[in-house]
Amino acid sequence: MINLDELKPILSELLEGREDGADYIERVSGLDKPVEVDRSEIDALNKSWNDRYMATFFGPKAEDLTGEPLPGGPAEGAPETEDGGMEDITIDDLFTEVKED
Length: 101
What we know:
This protein is mostly helical. It is about 45% helix and about 0% strand. The chain starts with a helix and ends in a 35-residue tail after the last helix.
């Protein structure tokens, strides 16, 4: 959102010397209308993105960091241990060595 109080000096410079400059500034000021924001929707969207971020980068340890379970549980196809936990994967586990003959 643009702060009209900051915009007016810029418009004044652009419209300097014009007889109808004040009219343009009034017309731009008339565009400013109050906006109704549903804060609960914004909060829900922020929480959704935060949960997805934590699950993506921290996996099952995200619950330890946030103190609350993340929706959706482990990623589909993620390796699990015998006790139902997630298997620790290192960066080396993600790559396989290819030997060329």
